[in-house]
Design a protein that fits this description.
InterPro entries: AB_hydrolase_fold
Strand content: 5-15%
Protein name: Carboxylesterase patB
Strand order of the largest sheet: 1-2-3-4
Shape: globular
Oligomer: single chain
Length: about 290
């Protein structure tokens, strides 16, 4: 699983969307729907169409959690809470082998150029959490991710915002998947910025494009692709063959770089801030 990305939603924020969800479900099903209990009984196809419509109407720079996360041949297609909270509480099928990873500094992909200042960062957080108080938005900016922790000159603000958004959207998902799955393995990719996309494309996409003559990228991508294939085909036996270390044994993940396998390193996605995002003390329940 590469970079599992979900956006947490607090109860107060979700309530603002209930009417829109009910209206959209009524429109697409042809049935007047006034309660969420009715939505839970809808076929998967309609739920999926509702989810698609909600995503299309999302604000730029946000990731929409809709009523569908996974396909089930029953009424269980409806998922009642944000994925992050369900992961933290262990509400998933745990008896699986899972290999999950992310790219270092991946938060840059989630961060608008306007988020390099306190004001811009707070404005973006307010866009993500429109029902959260200004006091809590300031807490996220000033205390949870203080800019003083990022002493990189002109890039301090952007690095702070990128780190926060990586935790929020993806990093904490990686962390809790590794912690709560019974047989989990992790990896992190740390490559040159100019090489990031072609590196991942070659690994994950059959026939992925790599420039002619780029022998290093081909060699490294082939190595990691072999790891993924071994794991996917043979699970635990494949993990042993690929020399992956179970996460529960030492809390480390495999490091892949432009030069290939570089050993095992501590999981940087295991952020102390994940606890805050999961328990959502900023949530206002009415």
């Amino acid at each position: 699983m590469q970079s599992p990305t979900f956006q947490p939603r607090v109860t107060s924020q979700s309530k603002l969307r209930v009417t829109k969800i009910l209206d959209k479900a009524s429109e697409l099903s042809g049935i007047r729907i006034t309660r969420l209990a009715q939505i839970r009984k809808l076929p998967f196809k309609i739920l999926c169409d509702v989810n698609t419509a909600l995503v299309q109407e999302s604000a730029y720079g946000t990731f929409t959690f809709g009523p569908v996360v996974d396909y089930r041949k029953s009424d269980k297609s409806y998922v009642p809470d944000s994925p992050l909270r369900r992961l933290k509480s262990g509400k998933m099928e745990k008896n699986l082998n899972i290999l999950v990873g992310y790219r270092k500094k991946e938060g840059r992909f989630f961060t608008p150029s306007s988020a390099g200042t306190d004001q811009g960062f707070q404005a973006h957080l307010a866009n993500i959490f429109p029902s959260v108080s200004r006091r809590d938005i300031r807490f996220m900016s000033d205390l949870l991710y203080p800019i003083s922790d990022y002493s990189d000159g002109d890039q301090s603000g952007m690095n702070r915002s990128a780190n926060a958004l990586q935790d929020l959207f993806m990093g904490c998902n990686v962390h809790y998947l590794l912690v709560f799955m019974e047989r989990s393995y992790g990896y992190v990719l740390d490559t040159a910025w100019s090489n990031r996309e072609k590196y991942l494309e070659k690994i994950l996409v059959r026939g992925g494009a790599v420039p002619w003559g780029d022998s290093t990228t081909k060699r490294v991508a082939t190595w990691l692709q072999a790891v993924f294939l071994q794991f996917g085909m043979f699970a635990t036996e494949g993990a042993n063959e690929a020399k992956l270390l179970p996460y529960h044994e030492n809390r480390t993940v495999m490091l892949g770089t432009d030069d290939g396998f570089m050993g095992f390193v501590p999981n940087s996605a295991a952020s102390r801030q994940c606890r805050y995002w999961t328990y959502a003390p900023y949530e206002v329940i009415t």
